[in-house]
Protein backbone atom coordinates (compact mmCIF):
# COMPACT_ATOMS: atom_id res chain seq x y z
CA UNK A 1 0.00 0.00 0.00
CA UNK A 2 1.46 3.31 -1.12
CA UNK A 3 1.59 5.95 1.58
CA UNK A 4 2.69 9.57 1.29
CA UNK A 5 2.91 11.81 4.33
CA UNK A 6 3.58 15.52 3.91
CA UNK A 7 4.80 17.91 6.58
CA UNK A 8 6.27 21.38 6.87
CA UNK A 9 3.44 23.65 5.85
CA UNK A 10 2.56 26.79 7.77
CA UNK A 11 2.18 30.54 7.60
CA UNK A 12 4.92 32.85 6.43
CA UNK A 13 5.27 36.46 5.34
CA UNK A 14 6.01 37.37 1.73
CA UNK A 15 9.68 36.85 0.97
CA UNK A 16 9.97 34.12 3.58
CA UNK A 17 10.87 30.46 3.23
CA UNK A 18 9.42 27.06 4.07
CA UNK A 19 10.58 23.50 3.50
CA UNK A 20 8.06 20.76 2.81
CA UNK A 21 8.83 17.09 3.35
CA UNK A 22 7.16 13.99 1.94
CA UNK A 23 7.89 10.54 3.32
CA UNK A 24 6.98 7.80 0.85
CA UNK A 25 6.50 4.09 1.39
CA UNK A 26 4.94 1.03 -0.18
CA UNK A 27 5.73 1.60 -3.88
CA UNK A 28 7.63 -1.04 -5.82
CA UNK A 29 7.69 0.11 -9.44
CA UNK A 30 11.10 0.39 -11.13
CA UNK A 31 9.89 3.53 -12.89
CA UNK A 32 8.07 6.23 -11.05
CA UNK A 33 7.76 9.97 -10.75
CA UNK A 34 7.34 11.75 -7.45
CA UNK A 35 6.49 15.37 -7.09
CA UNK A 36 4.69 18.31 -5.58
CA UNK A 37 1.40 19.76 -6.66
CA UNK A 38 -0.63 22.59 -5.22
CA UNK A 39 -4.23 23.67 -5.22
CA UNK A 40 -5.37 27.16 -4.34
CA UNK A 41 -9.02 27.89 -3.48
CA UNK A 42 -11.17 27.87 -6.60
CA UNK A 43 -8.33 26.71 -8.85
CA UNK A 44 -7.37 23.34 -10.30
CA UNK A 45 -4.48 21.34 -8.90
CA UNK A 46 -1.24 22.19 -10.69
CA UNK A 47 2.13 20.48 -10.89
CA UNK A 48 4.87 22.45 -9.13
CA UNK A 49 7.93 20.23 -9.34
CA UNK A 50 8.54 16.58 -10.23
CA UNK A 51 11.42 14.15 -10.60
CA UNK A 52 11.60 10.60 -11.86
CA UNK A 53 13.47 7.47 -10.86
CA UNK A 54 15.20 7.21 -14.22
CA UNK A 55 17.24 10.41 -14.52
CA UNK A 56 18.36 13.58 -12.76
CA UNK A 57 16.01 15.95 -14.57
CA UNK A 58 13.77 18.08 -12.37
CA UNK A 59 10.63 19.69 -13.75
CA UNK A 60 9.61 23.07 -12.33
CA UNK A 61 6.54 25.07 -13.18
CA UNK A 62 7.45 28.45 -14.65
CA UNK A 63 5.85 30.22 -11.70
CA UNK A 64 8.33 28.71 -9.22
CA UNK A 65 11.57 28.48 -11.24
CA UNK A 66 14.46 30.09 -9.39
CA UNK A 67 12.53 30.14 -6.10
CA UNK A 68 11.71 26.49 -5.31
CA UNK A 69 14.18 23.61 -5.12
CA UNK A 70 13.28 19.93 -5.18
CA UNK A 71 15.57 17.44 -3.46
CA UNK A 72 15.45 13.83 -2.31
CA UNK A 73 17.04 11.55 0.25
CA UNK A 74 16.83 8.06 -1.21
CA UNK A 75 18.02 6.44 2.03
CA UNK A 76 15.02 7.91 3.84
CA UNK A 77 12.55 7.61 0.94
CA UNK A 78 11.85 11.27 1.50
CA UNK A 79 11.61 14.21 -0.87
CA UNK A 80 11.70 17.88 -0.04
CA UNK A 81 10.53 21.14 -1.55
CA UNK A 82 12.53 24.16 -0.42
CA UNK A 83 10.42 27.24 -1.08
CA UNK A 84 12.16 30.62 -0.98
CA UNK A 85 11.03 34.14 -1.84
CA UNK A 86 7.45 33.10 -1.19
CA UNK A 87 4.65 35.20 -2.61
CA UNK A 88 0.98 35.51 -1.66
CA UNK A 89 0.07 33.66 -4.86
CA UNK A 90 1.96 30.62 -3.56
CA UNK A 91 -0.77 30.17 -0.95
CA UNK A 92 -2.30 26.73 -1.48
CA UNK A 93 -2.60 23.22 -0.16
CA UNK A 94 0.52 21.38 -1.30
CA UNK A 95 0.27 17.69 -2.14
CA UNK A 96 2.92 15.07 -2.64
CA UNK A 97 2.16 12.44 -5.27
CA UNK A 98 3.60 9.38 -6.99
CA UNK A 99 2.96 8.11 -10.49
CA UNK A 100 4.09 4.59 -11.32
CA UNK A 101 5.08 3.86 -14.91
CA UNK A 102 6.49 1.25 -17.27
CA UNK A 103 9.25 3.49 -18.64
CA UNK A 104 11.14 6.56 -17.56
CA UNK A 105 11.50 8.70 -20.69
CA UNK A 106 10.17 12.19 -20.04
CA UNK A 107 8.40 10.92 -16.97
CA UNK A 108 9.00 13.88 -14.66
CA UNK A 109 7.46 16.42 -17.03
CA UNK A 110 4.65 14.06 -18.03
CA UNK A 111 3.71 13.31 -14.44
CA UNK A 112 3.64 16.98 -13.47
CA UNK A 113 1.41 17.74 -16.45
CA UNK A 114 -1.13 14.92 -16.12
CA UNK A 115 -1.08 14.08 -12.41
CA UNK A 116 -0.25 11.25 -10.09
CA UNK A 117 -1.70 7.88 -9.16
CA UNK A 118 -1.29 8.27 -5.41
CA UNK A 119 -1.58 11.35 -3.24
CA UNK A 120 -0.83 12.46 0.27
CA UNK A 121 -3.38 14.36 2.31
CA UNK A 122 -1.73 17.72 1.72
CA UNK A 123 -0.23 20.47 3.83
CA UNK A 124 -1.39 24.09 3.85
CA UNK A 125 0.99 26.91 2.98
CA UNK A 126 -0.20 30.44 3.64
CA UNK A 127 1.81 33.46 2.52
CA UNK A 128 0.43 36.66 3.93
CA UNK A 129 1.54 39.87 5.60
Please supply descriptive tags for the structure shown above.
about 130 residues, mainly beta, 7-stranded mixed β-sheet, 4-stranded antiparallel β-sheet, about 5% helix, globular
Plain-language structure description:
It is built from one helix and eleven strands; from the N terminus they run E-E-E-E-E-E-E-E-E-H-E-E. With 129 residues, it is mostly beta strands. Strands 2, 4, 5, 6, 9, 10 and 11 form a seven-stranded mixed sheet that branches. Strand 5 and strand 6 form a beta hairpin. The longest helix has 8 residues, at 107-114. The radius of gyration is 14 Å and the shape is globular. The N and C termini lie far apart (40 Å).
Summarize this structure briefly.
This protein is mainly β and 129 residues long.
Fraction of residues in helix = under 10%
- The CA-CA distance between the termini, in Å, is 40 Å
Structural class: mainly beta
What is the chains' assembly state? single chain
Query: What Rg do the Cα atoms give?
Result: 14 Å
Biggest pleated sheet: 7 strands, mixed
Principal-axes shape call? globular
- What is the helix tally? 1
Query: Average pLDDT value?
Result: 95
What is the topology?
Layout: E1 3-7, E2 10-12, E3 18-25, E4 31-39, E5 46-52, E6 58-60, E7 68-73, E8 78-83, E9 92-101, H1 107-114, E10 118-119, E11 123-127
Amino acid sequence: QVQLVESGGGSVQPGGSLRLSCAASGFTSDYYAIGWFRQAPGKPREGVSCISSSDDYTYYADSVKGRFTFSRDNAKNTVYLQMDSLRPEDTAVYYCGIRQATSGRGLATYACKVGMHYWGKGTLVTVSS
